[in-house]
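Entry 14. Ran structure prediction on the chain below.
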Amino acid sequence: MQKRVITCLLPVALAFAATASCNDSTEPSNTISYVANLRASNEVNANGTSANVNSPNSTGTWTGTLNTSTNVLSWTMTYSGLVANSSASHIHAQAPTTSTANVVLNFATFSGSTITLGATSGTASGSINLGTAATPPSLTISGDSLRKAIDAGQAYVNVHSSQYGAGEIRGQIVKQ
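Output, structure tokens:
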């Protein structure tokens, strides 16, 4: 009688083990997520101090997803509470949180993005293929260099306003 119970339970145990092993896949995901929390206090003056202490309600969030199979970086951004109308928004590289860097991707002129400017709140979205060593149109560095800067925490997003021409809010892009 005991042999019969074991024999009957063996297929059930094998099916459970096979299901469990399928759910515990060790295959890497083909996406990498990034985030930048934009705040006025993150903007940096030439002397390395916070630039915009007078706009504490200015905030924004930039989120990005890199498909590692296609090398396409897609992003969305929202911002609000600016003290003046937005005038520009960019990704800058290469710089840590304590310094500034050149614009490498201008959301307003890049054909792969859309942005609402001219108000105290807005949105942006877009995508770019970073899989080429050559410099894609509207980038000032290669896609590969931009990916390396983002992965190293050496790139940031900011939104400029008519009152803060150098940038009202800024957020360092951080790999999740």
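The radius of gyration is 23 Å. Will compare against last week's run tomorrow.
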